[in-house]
Amino acid sequence: MRLFIALWVGKFLLFLTRKTKKGGGTALPGLIALKIDPRLVKKITAKLQTGSILVTGTNGKTTTSKYIFEILRQSGFKVISNRSGSNLMRGVASTLIEKSTIFGRPRGNIGLFEIDEAAMPDATKFLNPKIVIVNNLFRDQLDRYGELDKTASLIADSVKDLKNITLLLNADDPLVASLGKNVGSLTTVLYFGLEEDNYNASSLASFDSKDCLFCGQELVFDKRYYGHLGIYHCSNCKFARPEPDFVASGIEIKGVRSARANFSHANDILAAQLKLSGMYNIYNALSAYAAAKVLDIDNNTIRQALEVVAAAFGRMERIEVDGKEVYIMLIKNPIGFTQVMETLSTDPAVKNYFIALNDNFADGTDISWIWDADLESLSKDFKFIVSSGIRAEDMTLRLKYTDLDIKKIDTINNITEAFEKALSLTGNNETLYVMPTYTAMFTLRNYLKDKGVVMDFWEEQ
């Protein structure tokens, strides 16, 4: 009876929020329903025939989940997933309320949930996971998470006692790889990583994990792909990058428009041309490939899915506004900002930039991270920059310390006004690259929705 009442209330709130256009119903229904029945999530997911896949880590959760969703869909699974990106337990509960009957029977046979790192203890307890993916761990929202060791310990505690699951870890991230050392014998630990000679990071931005987790000595990096992701070993103890079970190699990055890579497991090789570019998206596709192989999905299905997936909203999303091409690329921490800039630098064309920096709770109120992003490539190939958002002046100051031509920078706090200015400065055959923080992205998308350019984020799922 408690579950029935929670679901009834949740479904009513879902209908009400969407009917009144007060939101997508991706959090409130779950928040209230969980107060009525705190075990709602566990009761529903226990009925999923194939259990759940959880995706966590600092960057790439939404895109990785989108890749996996498409692979599962093309394989014939009926997937229940929080594709809106609402990744706290209230968001998961809201998804289950929408995708279940009033009696708590899920309208699917497998769950796929991106999970905020801080929510992992509850997620692993209630979501019946069969596969858990940890993509990476970088500094992010220090006011909320604290330092990385705290985040890593949260995840470590959440997975150490799991049974009969497969834990997929990024071998190239020392913090993530170390998680595989403290799990029980009933957990299968597999690793994924790059084997690539053509890419070696030059930037030291977000070199967050450089000490051995076991003895404290500084790690030796034989190669870095970006940040602290690479091939490493400890000079003092035996800790070293694990040999990956799933590998990406033969990587080609072509601006923001496409990338290619070979994905392999044992002697099995799959070549794919991706619509999503950047080294970080290669990792996202690789972890999705690894999950698919664990589920014994055939290569042809995996390839077709990887090649058809376009950007999740705001994650290198391409749209057309007033006849002009616009790319929206979410930035939320120094490594993400740096990787966006490095990806853009592989395209030699002169660029137009719109950067919107907010410091609301969902963005992280500490914006000091902008000083740790490597923005040096900006000075090489830009026509103009419009700086916007609540903390536009801070962003402009950061840009000035990159030795840019300040005459090419406009500072306009109002995001709508600033975007219109940036669009007017963009030529008909040029591209505007938009880099907003989280809440700035939603402000911009609401404006674009009113123009008929995009749909509500929850309608696109």
Automatic annotation (TrEMBL):
The pathway where this protein functions is: Cell wall biogenesis; peptidoglycan biosynthesis
Q: What EC number(s) does its UniProt record assign?
A: 6.3.5.13
Q: Does the keyword Cell wall biogenesis/degradation apply?
A: yes
Alphabetical keyword list? ATP-binding, Cell shape, Cell wall biogenesis/degradation, Ligase, Metal-binding, Nucleotide-binding, Peptidoglycan synthesis, Zinc
The protein's matches in Pfam families, at most eight in alphabetical order, are given as:
Mur_ligase_M, MurT_C
**Molecular function terms, GO-annotated:** acid-amino acid ligase activity; ATP binding; carbon-nitrogen ligase activity on lipid II; zinc ion binding
| Domain (Mur ligase central): residue spans on this chain | 55-211
Name of the protein this chain belongs to: Lipid II isoglutaminyl synthase (glutamine-hydrolyzing) subunit MurT
What interactions and quaternary structure are annotated? Forms a heterodimer with GatD.
Task: Locate the active site.
Answer: D366
